[in-house]
Structures are given as C-alpha cells and as structure tokens.
Queue: 4 jobs
Job 1
Amino acid sequence: MRTILHLDMDAFFAAVEQHDNPEYRNKPLIIGGRKDSPRGVVSTCSYEARKYGIHSAMPLKRAVSLCPHGIFIPGRMTRYQEVSQQIFAILPEFSPLVEPLSIDEAFLDMTGCEHFYKDLYDMGMTIKKAIKIKTGLTASIGIAPNKFLAKLASDWNKPDGLTIIRPEQIDEFLLQVPLGKLWGVGDKTKQILRQNRINSMQELRQQSLDNLIKILGNSLGNHLYQLCRGIDHRQVEPEAPVKSISQEITFEKDSKDLEFLKSQLAVMAEKVGFRLRQQKLYARTVNIKVRFSDFKTITRSHTLEYTISDNDSIFNIGWNLFLQIPLAPIRLLGIGVSNLSVNQQLSLFDNTVETNKLAEVLDKINTRYQNIAITKGRTLFNKDEQ
Ligand SMILES: [Mg+2]
C-alpha cells in the first residue's frame, strides 16, 4: 500500500499578495488585471472574493459587476515564482519523490516515510507547518493510497485543510464525490453519462466494464471503471530529468574568423562539459548551431556509440561538425550535448577514462573559484598573437 500526499496552496497568488500587503487582508482581492482592463480574466481571487461568486477564469468585467468594491490588481508573477521556489525547496526534506504539478501544487510519494511521524495526520501537519513557517501561507493537503484520491482529498476541505483517506475509507469517501470531480470527466462526458442515466458515483459503479467501454470508448471507459473504485496506479514522477545542455553566443559583430570561432566554441564546450559533469551525466550526442548574417540557422549533430563527458571530446566533435558547414559571416554560434544518461558507456578505443580524470581535476579547481578560471590553452585565444 502506497502513501501519496497531494499539496495545494490556498488561493496562491491572492494569498501571497495578502501576506505581502496587509492592506489587502480580509478583503475581496482579485488578481488578473485592473478594474478597467477590458479583456482580462480572473487568475486567482481571495476567499473573501469567492463569497461574491467570483472564481478563476471568469471575465474581469463580470467579477467587477459582482463585486464593484473589490481590489483588482494585475499580479506579480516573479514574486509568485519566488515563493513557489521557497515551497519546492523544502519539499525534498520530506520525500525524495516530489512531482510538481503547477506553481503551487505537488505530489509527494511518502511511502516508506510513515515511521518518521506519529501518524498520517502528524505527517500532513508537519508539512503544512513547515510551509507556513517558511512562507507565512497555508496549504491544503490530502493523503491517500494513490494520486487520484490524494488530489480529491486535498480539495475536500480548503482552505488550510488536511484530509486523509485510509484504504478502508475509500468506498465511503468516493460515494459522496460528484462525478465532475473524476479526473477526465468534463461537461461532454458528464452529458454522455447523463444520457445513459449515470448521475452519481453509485450509478457509475453499477456499470459493467463492457458497458462503460461501449458508452465511452476503450480508454475512457477503462479509466472511469477504475477511478470510481478508487484505483489509480500512476506513479509519482519527479521532475523530468535534464534532456540536453547547451550554450550559445551572439557575437557583437558577425565573424568568419576561423581562429576566433574556434576559441569561442572551445569556451562554450568547456561550460557545457562542466555542467554535464556537475550533474554527473554522460552524453552520446553533440550538437552545434550556427546562425548566419542573414539569420539562416543550421544545426548539425553527431551521435556516438559510447558516452562522453570531457571538454575535449565535446569540442572536437563540435568543431568537426562546424568545419563541414560552408563558411560565411556568423552571427550566433552554439554547442550542446543531448542523449544524456547517468551511465557511462566506454569507448573501446580511446582513453576516455583518463580524459575524464583530467576534466574532474579541472572542475574541482573551477568549482572552488566559482568561475571558469582555468581552461586549456586553446581558449586563451588572443588576436595579437596571430
Ligand atoms: Mg492552489
């Protein structure tokens, strides 16, 4: 049995504003635009504004007519992102498996962490308190054996809620949930269900799998057959791993000076290699990007049988790719690696291990000095030496 926790900040943007600006507290606050903004929609509103029937995605005009004395502001995305980062920064303290769903929402797989807490209530309260101390804001939390139920639970008792669904409570809990709360059931599906006299969870459960597939098709039929029984096998998937690392530069003046371009590519290859090794990754593909004066842009890539992570290999492959491109004044040059993995695959023929060791030593020095202090001779290009 898994323990999945869903966390959702309460009226997030509005809560941040009310926290930062005491004059907004206990007042209907609507984020989305100024009162006179003609085409705006409500992004978030405070709980005080919800009492007037205002909700997200409502046209601002309508919100103004519902609550003319409300406070209407455009919002400060950078500030919300900053608070979001504070929240996400503390979540790994509770579980290594954190899946961000949006700026203010996440799943945590707490399976195996249960014994750190007195009980599930204590687990939820501990996380809620940590967020409150860090940001001054309240979160609602749901804890259940799977993602679907955990998300339903966090939504059940907002704001500042904590709802726990234990395995033996699943049936009782689900029967009170309206069909529209089922993930994947929008207006269209609800209408189809209604036409088939399915108006409640109870009635949905009475349908055979065959019948649901007949009504809704294979995928949705199967999906709803499982959901209405509280079955959801989806895993908590931590943030997508890095897929590529790249670096590019736009020159002040277009250039077709081969030595200059070579030195620039070398500097960038070192930065790419440094970041690659910092994340303990290996690459199989090197890509370059060239944009000419006329903005025509071309990319080239080369994929290897083995993995690399050293600057020299990245540079050499990139430079070879570059030399295959007809030379003309260049405006932008970039190099990157992709096809990344955490496993090293050695080449049968070269001295990858040795070059990796050299790169490691250089990285240690560079990390210590915080900037790329030591580089190999090639990048110390100086025009006067020509
Ligand atoms: Mg929220």
Job 2
Amino acid sequence: MYVADPIAAVTDPDPYPYYRHLAATRPFHHDAALGLWVAASADAGAEVLAHPDCRVRPVAQPVPPALAGTPAGALFGRLVRMTDGAPHAALKAVVMRAMAGIDLPDARTRARALAAHLPRAEADDAHEANRWMFTLPVLCVADLLGLPLERDEAGHVSTRVAGFVATFAAAMSPLARPADVEAGAVAAQWLTRWAGEHAAPGGLLAAMSQAAIDTAIDADIDPATLLANAIGLMIQACEATAGLVGNTLVRLGRLGEASGDLDELVADVACTDPPVQNTRRFLAADATLCGESLKAGDAVLVLLAAASHDPAGARPDRPWTFGTGRHGCPGDALARLLAATTVDSLLQRDVDPRRLLAGLRYRPSVNARIPLFTPSH
Ligand code: HEM
C-alpha cells in the first residue's frame, strides 16, 4: 500500500517504493487533489528546473502573504533562492564566487573546533541529537561568514544565532502559524542587525561584498541585499543540513555498528534518504512541459527524492536533493562536510544512533525530511 500523495511522502517512514512507482508510471502528471502538477522522473524534474518560465515564486506573489510587510518578508524577498531573472543571476554569481573561495579542509577544521566548544548539555541522546543538528552546521556557516560567536566564561559557544536562524526558517514554511511568523519577524530583525554590525574582514561576507564589486558590472547589488544573502546562507544551511545529519543518524542506527567512512555514508544518504524531497515551481507564462500544456500560474512539484530513486537519474556526484539548473544549491559540498562533522561529533559525545530509532518521527514539513528524535523518558 503506497503513501497517500507526494506531500505525505516527505514524512512517511518509507516513501521510496511509492516514489519509484510514480517515476516509472506517472513521470509527469496532474494531481487534482493537491492542485499541482507533479514531476516524478529524473527527466521530467530536469526539464522543469531548466525551463525559463518555471519560477521559484508565483509572479504576483514574490513574498508569501503571511510574511509580506514584515521584517521577515523583507529578508525573504531579497534571498537569491526566492528571486528569478537578472537579479537572481547577478546574486547567484556573487554567491558562487564567494563560496568557491571556501577552503573545505579548513572549514572542517573550524567545524571540529566549534564542536569541541559545544558542551553536551542533555543526558538524553535524542535531545542532544535534535539540538546539535540544528545548531552546529549553522554556527559553522556563521563562523565562515566572519561573524563572531559569543562564548561564556568556560569558553562554550553560544547557540543563540542558530536559534534565531531556525526560528526564521520555520516562519518561511507554509505550515507556519501566526505565532511562528511573529517570531520569524523578530528573528529577521535580530539577524539583520547582528550580521550588519559584526561582520569581520576576511570572512565569507566580506568575500561576497568583494565579489559584488568584481562581478556585478551592470547589476547594482545594494548592501541590504548582500547582507540578506549572507544571512540566507545560514538559513539555507539550517533545516536541510539538519535533515542530512538526522537521516544519516537513522541510517547508522539501522546499520547497527558504526562502520565505514562517514563522508561516503553522508553522500549515500543524500541520494537514498534525502533531506530535501521536493521543490516547487510556478509558471510565469503558458508553456508546454513534458508534452503537457500548462497555464500561467500553474504550480509544479518537482520530486527530487523520486528523481534520486529513478534508475535513469543516478547522479552520485551531485545528489538530486541539492537541486539542479539555475537555482541548484551552491553549498552542496559544504553541506555534506558539515553533516559528516556533526554526526562524527555526536558519535564522539557517545550518542548511540541505535537508541534514537525507538523515538523516530519526522517533523511536519511539506518538503524537508528531518527526523525528530523523541526522548526516551
Ligand atoms: C543538506 C543540506 C542542503 C540541501 C539538501 C540543500 C538543497 C538545496 C536545494 C534543493 C536548493 C534549490 C532549491 C530549488 O531549486 O528550488 C538549494 C538552494 C540553495 N542552497 Fe542549499 N542545500 C543544503 C545546504 C546548503 C548550505 C550549507 C548552503 C550554504 C552555506 C546552501 C546554500 C544554498 C543557496 C544560497 C541556495 C539558493 C541558490 C539559488 O536559488 O540559486 N545550501 N539548496
């Protein structure tokens, strides 16, 4: 018996037989109940993500109505992830250039150093795993950006910035309640002020400013947009990397013995139990996609997780969960490194993945598969 639909699949215990069935039998179809077109095969997904009229936001709604007019909406509307056309191309060039300058071995060393200064706060493995997966990757990106992380007298790193980033990320979800949106607005204000006041020279944020000067000859990228996109890197790192950490812990728990190379395991999990399961596109004009006639305003759900399980779409070097085409993730290598380091740090703190399985659920989400480990008491 298959799961109900592609949205329910995201948090289903085992959606992969369903995804494979969809990719094989209904590669591109209209789901009347969801009111969405669904691209399930690798070919269909690639075609949608490459199409110039397939935009990341509905044309008439650049910012979700719940966020519009708030500081959270102002931040959202500036993100490269949420923008199309010439502004997107200019910003993407800046982000790619700055990120290409990251020294990955050095990033791993810095991530390990940060992990060493995060104390084990909870006795329970589940609490600890939930906390770290939403904390360490974001703190590492903040550190790479050149933002100063607070420390207490014992030298322990404060996780405050990661809390604000997670709060903002939650406010962007279609499942956000009014209280989440309100908290997201406060978080956006805090992050904007903090990042604006504290960026140190030599970090990724400074590299983005330099890249904006070097690359954006015709496009004028204002400082507020640059700052928003520096904060955007922490936001992008938050939920998806937490999902990759959590899904890797689940895999380790099922394997029983912690064995093999963690980088390889993370790469495999990114393909076989991916954290980002789908992404949406909105038609800016009538268009023919995968042989079907779509109308302006139609929405398409691209099932990245189904493409990943489509035998015709095997791409071990660039897992589908990182997307493809113009909006493809520029942080994939860093994300895998941060996930592996976070898992490794949890193992070193004696978190036993086998003990996490008993309380395994998934956080409610329409696109991200992120375990929520329930404490044992
Ligand atoms: C496991 C972790 C991650 C996953 C699965 C992931 C996945 C994705 C996906 C699927 C997209 C494209 C969305 C679309 O086309 O609709 C994306 C975009 C993006 N990601 Fe990631 N990401 C991860 C971590 C990161 C990290 C660590 C960073 C940076 C520090 C990052 C930076 C970005 C940015 C800036 C974009 C927007 C690119 C654009 O719109 O052109 N991501 N990511």
Job 3
Amino acid sequence: MAAPPTASRRGLISALMLVAAVCVAVVALVVLLPAARSDPYTRSTLQLSGSGERGEQLFLINCAGCHGIAAQGLVGPNLHGVNSRKNNRQLIQQVVSGRTPPMPRFQPEPQAMADLLAYLHTLT
Ligand code: HEC
C-alpha cells in the first residue's frame, strides 16, 4: 500500500495541530477564566472595604523599597494612575501571583489586600 504523498501528510499534521491549539484555547477560556474570576481569595477581598491609611502603612513596609515611598517608581514602576491601567482583579493578581519577577509573591490577608487596593486607588 502506497503511503500518502508527504505534502498531504504535512497538511494533515498542520490541520491536527491547529485543531489541538484551538482546543487548548477553548479549554483555557472556558475553564481558567471563570476560575480566575471566581477565585475565593479575590472574591472575599473585593467584598471588604479597605482603608487607604492602613494600606499606605502596608505599602511603606512591603512595597516602598521597590516602588518608592510615594509610589513614584524606583526598581518597580511608578504606581500613580495604576488603577486606570489595571482593574481590581488585575491589581490583586499583580500582588499575589508573583508572575512578574523581581516583584515577589505576597500573601496578604484579604483585609490587608483590600487596604492596599484602597491605597492604590488614592494614587491618581
Ligand atoms: C522587589 C521589588 C518589588 C516589590 C517589593 C514590590 N514590587 Fe510591585 N513591581 C515591581 C516590578 C519590577 C514591577 C513591574 C513588573 C512587570 O510588569 O514586569 C512591579 C509592578 C507592580 C504593579 C503593576 C504596575 C503597572 O504599571 O501595571 C503594581 C500594581 C505593583 N507592582 C504593586 C506592588 C505592591 C502593592 C507591592 C507591595 C505589596 C509591590 N508592588 C512590591 C517590583 C516590586
């Protein structure tokens, strides 16, 4: 039995790879996005009302070394206006995920995270 011509086999492989890529993308959208939206830590943080003053104290202790005492930027970027670039979920992810080294992964209690968010909102 003759093997199919190489070109059509390559076409088939590319088509299968495309199908696999689409499947991965669909799974990511269907499973991961809602999971990220409904993650319990984020949900409980967003239900709390934060204090900008306590948030500033937390910021001075944990964040100012990199972002500057007035959040003006140092090793890390200037954070003024950051809440117009990132929504609350993204800000929480930024703090707790550790996805953007050298910024470490923080694990504040939900109330402390709510306070930090309140402080970040004061930075216009
Ligand atoms: C070791 C240094 C370091 C520390 C400590 C640190 N950061 Fe960062 N931070 C960074 C760096 C570097 C980036 C830029 C990351 C990137 O996008 O590549 C960043 C990015 C950010 C951003 C996103 C800025 C933007 O323009 O999108 C926010 C918000 C932020 N940090 C908040 C905080 C908070 C709140 C804390 C304290 C809980 C903190 N950071 C502590 C280094 C640090």
Job 4
Amino acid sequence: MTGPTVRIAQLSDLHFGRHLPAVAEALLDSLREVAPTMIAICGDLTQRARAGEFRAARDFLDRLPAPALVVPGNHDLPGWRLWSRFTRPWRRWRRHIGTDPHGAVTCTADGVLAVGVNTARQWGLHPDWSRGRINTRQLAGILAEFDRAGPTDLRVVIAHHPFLLTPAGLRRGLVGRSGLALRRLHRRADLLLGGHIHLAYSDVVDGMVVAQSGTAISDRLKGEPNSYNVIDIVGDELTVETRHFDGTAFTATTRHRYRRQDRHDWQVG
Ligand SMILES: [Fe+2]
Ligand SMILES: [Fe+2]
C-alpha cells in the first residue's frame, strides 16, 4: 500500500542547563533547512527541572519551524528535591511546556498521527529512578487515538524511554512493560520514537520501526557527537537518517532504510 510523504525530525535529550548554545543555533538552522512535517521531542528537555531551564526550553520550542509534539523525560522531574518530586512533580512542566504530562498528547499533520506518552516516573521499586515505564492505561489511550487515524496515516508513538537497546545501552534498561507494549502495538503502530540513552540507532522490532535519537544539544555525550534524526516516509519506504554535529553544522552521517510489507508491518531493507 502507498501512503503520503511525511518528514519527521526527531530530537531528544536537549538538557537545557547543560546545553551548548552554538549547537542549539546550528540545530535550529538545520531544522529550517530540513523543513519537517512535524518535530518529535523525546524528553529530557532540562537537566534538573529548574525554572530557568524550563524557560530556556520554552524559548527554544517557540523558535521551532514546524508543529512539535513534546513528551517529558526523567530529568524533567525534580531530581532529589523529594518534597517537590512527590507533591508537585510536574508543576514546572505544566507551567512552561503547557501539556498534561499524564494525558496522551497527539499531533496530527498531513499523513501522520503521532501520540506522545510520559514514561518518566516519580519513583520505582528499584534503586534507579531514572528508569521509566508505560502502563496499560497509556497503551489503551494510544490505541484509542490510533482508531481516529486515516487509513494511510503513519501511526507514531513518542516516548522518552527506549523500546530497543543496543549492547552499549543495556544497563539503562528498556521502558518498563515494553514486552506488553510491543504486543499491544503490534500491527497497530508503525514507528516508535525514544531517547534517554544519548545514542542514535534504529531497527525493526515486531514489525515496527524503532528509532532512537542522541542528545541533540547537550554536553552529556555518551561517545558520539550531538545528533538528531530525520525520518522520511515516502510511499512504502521509511528512512532514518541521523545528522551528527560536525563542529559547525548538523550533517547526514548514517541512513537506514525500512520497507512496508503490509499495513503497520515493516522490515529492514
Ligand atoms: Fe537524557
Ligand atoms: Fe533520560
């Protein structure tokens, strides 16, 4: 089957507070040139959820050249300010970013229906509270939104925590309940976008393309330069192109191709 042409710019882990201003300007230049249909921002907008960091993030969002769908990451919670973390964890997010962190946020553009979910959690039954989770209510919300999609619309899930890890990121952990999520989303979703690991990669999992983007503009590098992804869907082909920062500008470095076998069923190639 053939669908419309869609271009998604995928950014994550901006970490305002640890951001590099020159890289942020280069990213905005690159996004204007790329002219995406929509921009997916996969969480960790701030470093410590400080008000000044959220204000800087807000200023950046206001300069984006396309509609953006933004979800929180674990760094957008008050870290060890435990009183705030438990009593009003998303107060600054709501004030500065303006979306409901608990609701499914959607972005409909020509040929795409994207749903964002908040996988960051205030606490967990493990010592690493940076880990995230997706729950059955969120999965039901995603599927309800997808029921509203047009027959050829690309269906996209935008989260912070990953649905796929490479060996370099194994200790960080998949999003909690990822197995259940993959089963529910199988043949219902086309593309799962995430961040958190600060590494860029993509592959097919259970017939869905999973794409991870690196840290777009922060100095919290994990062995590779700042990057973001440009995802093109033209007919039955989907391309994930990673653009790395080369010291001056974001330039295309790697490109992975995927092909639709059937509705919401993709393979490498
Ligand atoms: Fe991050
Ligand atoms: Fe994170």
